[in-house]
Specification:
homodimer; alpha+beta; Butyryl-Coa Dehydrogenase, subunit A, domain 1; Butyryl-CoA Dehydrogenase, subunit A, domain 2; 6-stranded mixed sheet
Chain lengths: ~625, ~625
């Protein structure tokens, strides 16, 4: 095996067989986006492509074997992620059908739903959509306005959009293809509002006409994702049978009596939402995978394209310029780091979702980590793809070189499945309140009130390969003359930053009294500080995952290369936040200059391995597809 | 007048009458991009829109009165910039026809060209394109491969593309509409290559068919600018009359004898390129203008959209959240700052281009400043429009809310009219070599060799309102406890940073000896440092222009508001580069934390004026056009 193959093996993780299989199968399917198609044509083409995916097993992977699936959640999210390397419209559409719509039925439904719907939805005999977001309510799902009122006289729920802002919006599949919607609506029975639940509501007949009381419309052109038919839905007192409530966490009997295994309405809501964690895991991974394609294209172009005379008599490859290296190689290192973190996240998710009795705290930690890694990976993708486009100059702006398509398609990933700002706040809240039982959701006042005094302890818990990490930190050179290339030093810097940011934020928040308005003001004044918690926490998780991943790499040459990549990642993060490290006396003014020097030295070290590193990402030639590459 | 009107007056600058006229006239023309059109339809529509512009006087503005123009270069670039607020395809297409193609004829041609071509090209009776870039040669124009060989036997030039990489590429207008191309090619006569000159080459006949020997092709879909027909041109020994050489800076007589008023081939080339400076001025301004539209949309949305309960019982406007303010208000301040700098640049350009005998050093300074402001404004636009899209969540991703269209269209602005990295390097080179006579172009080795010892002096020369600036700096409080809100302190920090960055770079570069390979290595190791020169130099120019602009503002209330905006701009730049200021002991670790505190305090101060500040930008309602706004 070549060094590139060894590296690929190391970073492909536990589901490497799924990655390899996907690379082979998807390369044969002609999936790349064609910008010359009309919206209707592009949508029809993606639907057709989905049918070609059914035999690959990816659609069935996420469902339990007793429902006709393969019982392999790790395969499911890895398979969806791999689609992102070919076409993000296909990834999103597949994610909506099998992940969100299918996932809602699998996780919120009960036997009667599983028996009736799972097999048809895997095989695309039933096309669904996931109708959560409303025009007036994106991030704040608990405030959804759509109502589902039980009518005991007929044994039906009445689904209704009471206001303009209650309109379901941006729903993938709602504009054209979906026949049934998984609708999130407030369950009201016997005059009482039991909060948001999920209902299966048929929206179109066989001829694709809206059913009575349903009004769909088309979101039309977007910044990308032309193959996804996003739409809106209004409900005018639409009646559905009582059985269409996905009733795992809340049931209504014929008389309209509501029962639930979870007493607290708040806890119930977040349990339901928590079962849908797979969406965030997929979206984060897919965004990073798209960025890997962009980096593979831009680095290869940087190696081929020559410009200006540098060494006497020869034009210099773009990637031989320091500034070009600075643009691309740190991003490449970040892609590697995030890949390891994603592999670890998927493994945890798989374990928890296949255990018979998963630990609730571990489940919340998983949700928090999925939220944080979704935010950081999608933010990374936005930044990386943009940089790749610019690094390829005019050629990068031509659609047939793929970068602009990747850019447009991936742009909404920072927004959907949870806006990144809101997600980082969620991560912070869990850390600040030490996963306190009563603090779920995003109420800033609750965050202020529960800011626990034990936060420091929560930082170190439950990390991967915790012993290895601790050993490296303990073995680091003294602080006075610490070596920036020493992994223990890097890990220690990340950890100390996290602890300090959490502790000082907790102190600021605790100043607030009981008054709600004051609590909000205190929270808001500290909001940028709070968000930083989420960011630095995930940074540490990522560096630890990278460290653990290298320890598992069996090929010594590959491990050596990965160690340099890991240092470039760590120092890139430190350089980006250098002012913080200096302000808080973690790095002296002198050492600060050394950070930049060491980054540049690592660029020199890694430059000869640039091609190996993009080979390691394993993006198939068919997915590169850029005409500017030879 | 409302405060918003006063602010608008202050930032509209000397050509405010052109801005006001454009706002009124363009609002009536239905110019916004329609993503449902096919490429052909979009291109045809933009061409039609151009015809509607002819009566506005903008097309004629840039040409001398004796050629049938209005002799008002300031009006020309301001008018082109205003198009950017409506549709960037139209702005680019207009810029190509009247700015680049027309500008080449006006500035590189002589009477015989002016008489024959200027009036028809203003009126669109002659459609042209500007064929400089080749597939193999983007930034390095001196290496163009297309040849124009003089044949004395027929008195013709033979235009030829000798290789694949000599193909003219990305040329706006070449795919469909242009009848004539201004082709940059190496002039060869009597066996001697005299370097790159510009030739008028007919490429299509009346039926839009390629003329014999000309092969055009279509670049097809791009990341945006769907209304611009970018294409490629190959020449197979195409013959044109000798008179088609634009011969202001180089002539060939019937026998093939070459003469030029400028002896040095290098100086001649850069003089020719220098006359085309208007393109860079326009592109920088247009990018910022597009960002102003995006900011107007996103800030208005942030004021209307409410989310989560903050104060008891009410949902909070997005823009009341600290993080949302942090996303948008510093960008708004940056837009203001860059507007003032652009106004100043346009005024200088206008002065130089209407003087009978402009100072050559002033001309080079203008080119350098145009290059730097092009880089910073286009980089700003990319960043700002992206942030605006994300700050508007899912709604921001819908094409009819304009942000994604602005994003896609403006994305190539960092690349065309000079790649930003190359342009910042050019700015740095001029400063490092103190505008040394023999150092033009981008040869890194030359940069190393000429790195002058007098660089520090070049920094302060020729700034606007230099006395005012110096007075403010002299009056600043002592360094020990300097007040970050004091303008003199801010100006001093910007100036000291620039001097230090230039001096240390010069020291690094001077270490290189005479060996070419070594010189390149030394240059390359310092390339990120060199590029930083360009950035910090322009940062200072911008802050000084803002300061001078406020001094000219006659309304006290508006001036007060602008002072806060200016401080937010200055502290935003300082915060972004905080690590540098700390590393170099310009800001103590303690003061560093104060930077962040002061930025947040300014956000609180400016939040109530957010609407006034977007009104000040003066983006007409017709240009906002976002359906999500009420």
């Amino acid at each position: 095996m070549s060094l590139g193959d060894e590296v690929r093996r190391a970073i492909d993780g536990k589901w490497r067989h799924v990655r390899e299989q996907s690379r082979e199968q998807l390369s044969k399917l002609d999936l790349l986006y064609d910008p010359s198609l009309t919206l209707d044509e592009a949508r029809a083409r993606v639907l057709e492509q989905m049918r070609a995916l059914v035999p690959t097993g990816i659609p069935a992977a996420g469902f339990r074997t007793e429902h006709g699936g393969l019982g392999d959640p790790g395969m499911a999210v890895t398979g969806i992620e791999m689609l992102a390397q070919f076409d993000l419209s296909l990834m999103v559409k597949a994610g909506v059908q099998w992940g969100l719509f299918g996932g809602a039925i699998e996780n919120l439904g009960t036997a009667r739903h599983h028996e009736r719907y799972i097999r048809p939805l895997i095989d695309l005999d039933l096309l669904g959509c996931f109708a959560m977001t409303e025009t007036g309510h994106g991030s704040d799902v608990q405030s959804l306005e759509t109502t589902a009122t039980y009518d005991p006289s007929t044994g039906e729920f009445v689904i209704h959009s009471p206001t303009e802002s209650a309109r379901k919006d941006y729903i993938g599949g709602a504009a054209a293809h979906a026949r049934v919607a998984a609708v999130f609506a407030r369950l009201i029975t016997r005059g009482e509002d039991h909060g948001v639940h999920c209902f299966l509501v048929p929206i179109r007949n066989e001829n694709a006409d809206d059913l009575p009381g349903v009004t769909t419309s088309d979101c039309g052109y977007k910044g990308g994702l032309g193959g996804v038919d996003n739409g809106r839905i209004m409900f005018d007192r639409v009646r559905i049978p009582r059985e269409n409530l996905l009733n795992r966490y809340g049931s209504v009997d014929e008389e309209g009596v509501y029962t639930s295994p979870i007493e607290s309405r708040n806890a119930r809501f977040f349990t339901m939402i928590g079962t849908l964690v797979r969406g965030r895991v997929s979206v984060g991974g897919a965004a990073r995978a798209a960025a890997e394609v962009a980096l593979s294209i831009a680095v290869r172009y940087g190696l081929e394209r020559r410009q200006f005379e540098g060494l006497p008599g020869e034009e210099t490859a773009l990637l031989d310029y320091r500034v070009h290296q600075r643009r691309l190689l740190p991003l490449l290192a970040e892609a590697y780091a995030l890949r390891f973190a994603q592999n670890q996240l998927v493994a945890r998710m798989h374990r928890l979702q296949t255990e018979s009795d998963p630990d609730p705290l571990a489940q919340r930690e998983l949700e928090s980590r999925a939220a944080g890694l979704k935010a950081l990976q999608t933010e990374f993708a936005t930044r990386a793809i943009q940089e790749c486009r610019e690094a390829c100059g005019g050629a990068g702006y031509m659609a047939d070189n793929r970068l602009t398509v990747l850019k447009g398609d991936s742009d909404v990933f920072t927004t959907f499945e949870g806006d990144n700002v809101v997600l980082l706040q969620l991560v912070a809240k869990e850390l600040l309140t030490a996963y306190a039982k009563d603090v779920t959701g995003l109420d800033p006042v609750g965050m202020v009130r529960f800011a626990a005094s034990t936060v420091a302890d929560t930082v170190k818990e439950r990390t991967a390969a915790a012993q290895l990490i601790q050993r490296l930190i303990d073995a680091r050179p003294g602080d006075g003359d610490h070596d920036l290339l020493d992994r223990g030093t890097q890990l220690n810097l990340f950890e100390e930053r996290e602890q300090h940011v959490i502790e000082t934020a907790a102190r600021r928040l605790r100043r607030a009294g009981e008054d709600k308005a004051e609590a909000f003001a205190v929270f808001n004044a500290a909001q940028d500080h709070v968000i930083k918690i989420g960011r630095v926490h995930i940074d540490r998780i990522v560096l630890e995952a990278f460290t653990a991943g290298i320890a598992r790499c069996e090929d010594e040459e590959a491990a050596d290369l990965l160690r340099d990549v890991c240092s470039l990642y760590a120092l890139t993060i430190i350089e980006r936040d250098k002012a913080w490290f200096m302000e808080h006396n973690r790095i002296s003014d002198d050492r600060a200059k050394a950070v930049t020097r060491e980054v540049n030295a690592l660029l020199d070290t890694l430059r000869p391995h640039a091609l190996t590193l993009v080979e390691g990402l394993g993006v198939p030639a068919e997915s590169l597809g850029a005409t500017m590459l030879r």
